[in-house]
Structure of Constitutive coactivator of PPAR-gamma-like protein 1 isoform X3:
Amino acid sequence: MGVQGFQEYIEKHCPNAVVPVELQKLARGSLVGGGRQRPPQTPLRLLVDAENCLHRLYGGFYTDWVSGGQWNHMLGYLAALAKACFNGNIELLVCFNGALEKGRLHEWVKRQVNERQTAQQIISHVQNKGTPPPKVWFLPPVCMAHCIRLALLRFHIGVVQTIEDHHQEVIALFKENGFHGLVAYDSDYALCNIPYYFSAHALKLSRNGKSLTTSQYLMHEVAKQLNLNPNRFVIFASLLGNHILPDEDLAAFHWSLLGPEHPLASLKVRAHQLVLPPCDVVIRAVADYVRNLQDVHDLEAIAKDIFKHSQSRTDDKVVRFKKAVEYYANASKPPHFRPYLVRPNQMGLPAALQMLNIPGKPGHGYPGPPLAEPVHEADPSAKGLLEQNSYSNIPNDGKQHTPLYERLSPINSAHGSNSNHTDPAFFITSSTSSSSENEENTGSTANHVSDHKGWDKQRNQMDNIPEGDHGDQNKSDPSVTSPVNQSLEGKGHVGVNAQIPSLLSMPTRNHMDITTPPLPVVAAEVLRVAEHRHKKGLMYPYIYHVLTKGEIKLSVTIEDEANKDLPSAVQLYRPVRQYVYGVLFSLAEAKKKAERLAMRRNHLPDYPTVIIKEWAAYKGKSPHTPELVEALPFREWTCPNLKKLWLGKAVEDKNRRMRAFLACMRSDTPAMLNPANVSTPLMVLCCVLRLITWIHAAFSWLLFL
């Protein structure tokens, strides 16, 4: 599990670090168990990471969640949550994951494989027992995040959406905008110097809607339990295994920390299979190793030591180790001003909404990921800070570090400067927030080629691959799990006391990317509007991903893979997405230009080709390889370009927008275009029913052929 197992380790092995709190009491500035009360000067401002909190915002593992469509229940719960926050003087800003994050694609692939298995367990349970499945199998319904985002906007709760690196941007948003706490459930936040960190999984609203409770994580208590100075959490997180340097690449190092006499040493090689040590054992062993480091700023020496057992790709692992240290150092940087500074509420707007980016107006954007400032490695002050190996920063009696549940006011001036902040003085300046940071330093357009001949050649090679091979790729992709699930088969006989060979002879990525032709140029005004609406949470994130990256990720849905008569949801709605791609890249207008140019030059038109990569997992298709989907223009009418379609203010522009929507849904008939025939509230329902009927007829015709 690597660094992601650290959150569970805190809850299981650090009971003193998990403290139940009531958010209304915190907003009133009262002590736990009753005590002095002080009217707060401002609301208690909390940043919520929706990525870890969707099931709680949905209603808290609602019993009948598997049936789908509990819209009214979700609206009722969110309305009660908004009312409780308003009455309790609590201000929320919910941050949704809107980043493609190609650097974490291998994590997404593993998650989709697991969720696909969970979906089949849910289907089997419902078919065999006829009862709702267990809560531990909770799988978010399709577009749940989108529905929750719309509902939060309806109840006037602040919403933002990340754009490149979700974790870095959430941390930057928290530190640079004076929030009093972060509500999330992710090990990256626990290890990145978040002053007041609350559990998203423990967030509960009482039935009467008056009490909102959760748990607070006291990281100084975790540091005590690990006997590790918080200033060394950066190296600690980098050596646990993460999205930059996976734990598979650190397996030999982790086993070497245990030694041959450890009780678990016999598990490292069993029946020619390599396994990873249990997560809690790895955490304690790595903490001991980091604590005993003499010079934490000498990354070359540390890398040489941890990869001395590596038999392949050592240089690549060293580079990734340095990138991981830089990533967590950037996330752990203290803010440039006091962390609890609350900006004045201007023009009567909620403070959460004032930080949203307004295009064209400087000074109103919420910050991106912070970058490390260039500092020379030989800086003695930096070296002295990072070489601290005592408890100088860890309070022993609680007097030096007052937890949030003991503060007297939402603004505590005593904590203006926190001695636990890490000063990453030895990291090189670079942007680590790029979604392609792990793809060998490629840019956002690195997956595109300018030579169409090379693309055609590669496409011909892909066409020669049998369709079944894509679905079976997961059989050849090794994965490494705990001793309970051992699935990586070693090569040759390996003794118990022998050196552990490298788990993979190639970079640890269980997915294969494909090169696509370059995307058409999109108008700068369109990109500006798309980015603005994306950041404010007013637009579905797929649109920005298609316009800027040319690819999307489609999550697993709950569907019966044993039913061979029906296509999967990904296949069912693919024609709609193809037309949407065509609208986004103005293919109709590009097609007309190509035809006019061909007429002038007296040759066949050269129509532009737009290929979008769709990462998805469904029956017969593994998520390890994307599918190449071609954008299509409308045949019946020429859709205007995207700039005119989005920014046009005339009445006819509004009618064109409606027709473009209906055309994507195969419903642009005269009857549907007449508002007198179909009222607006029933428009979407009628379009979906017509689309399903059309696709079912087309699918039946193909089966008949």
Notes: The longest helix spans residues 105-129. Confidence is low (pLDDT under 50) at residues 31-39, 337-508. DSSP finds 28 helices and 13 strands in the chain.
